[in-house]
């Protein structure tokens, strides 16, 4: 097995493009957006070439300042609610997967892996494992059948949003992205201590400037005022809802119902297979909202392996 410490973008893209289990969070683009924003983060992805020529990647971000694997580094696959783990051109055997993990564990770093709910690859039990789940809307039916999956309350709220004049479209300028960021700031104040992590304005701007067709800011408006929005990522078969925010004063207009259903309809017509609402970070109200829109629970495991330094 050949190791590529810094697989080039074409190598990396070729592998993730060929694997239908991959998501936007496995791509070089996602990692580039992260390191553009955070000066103390670095890409540490590894590539693997097996004896028969098959290729695989293990996306990694190093989260310690000071250069690649200097000191007590930490490696994460992936970051900010994304998915990581093995991505390969074709199905790997158990021994091949083990060989990849054995190599990673030989590095002088602690390793965290956020599992991929669309993949069958397991994280070894040498890691401390934790159960989590996302909620996914399978795009395997007609638009009429999609609407039937909504709960009675969600259908009523969707109709209310339309009656109250809510409209949904994609953002057209950085100014609109900044308006969305202000709504996000308002949302953080509302969440208070329940907030797990706050993203800087620069990350959202980098996503808008450099995300291309793989990243879209969808916004909901009333009378020309942006009142809610969502950042959606597109890759292969999976459309990923990554980030959302809304103004509390407009909750009675139900903009999020119309926003999500508009994105789902768009993804359905463009031939994607899944709309992934993403993990809810322990916020039960958010999980119930996703369930009301017809999303089903997809469980996965995340794992952490702590490197213990030993004196020679």
Topology:
Layout: E1 2-4, H1 9-18, H2 28-37, E2 42-43, E3 46-49, E4 55-58, E5 61-62, E6 73-77, E7 87-88, H3 94-105, E8 109-114, E9 128-138, H4 143-148, H5 152-163, E10 167-170, H6 174-191, H7 201-210, E11 215-222, E12 225-235, E13 238-246, H8 255-269, E14 274-276, H9 284-292, E15 296-305
What does this protein structure show overall?
This protein is an alpha+beta fold. It folds into two domains: 2-126, Gcn5-related N-acetyltransferase (GNAT) (Aminopeptidase, 3-Layer(aba) Sandwich), CATH 3.40.630; 135-299, Gcn5-related N-acetyltransferase (GNAT) (Aminopeptidase). The protein has nine helices and 15 strands. The chain has helices at 9-18, 28-37, 94-105, 143-148, 152-163, 174-191, 201-210, 255-269, 284-292; strands spanning 2-4, 42-43, 46-49, 55-58, 61-62, 73-77, 87-88, 109-114, 128-138, 167-170, 215-222, 225-235, 238-246, 274-276, 296-305. Helix 2 runs antiparallel to helix 7, helix 5 (152-163) packs across helix 8 and helix 6 (174-191) runs antiparallel to helix 7 (201-210).
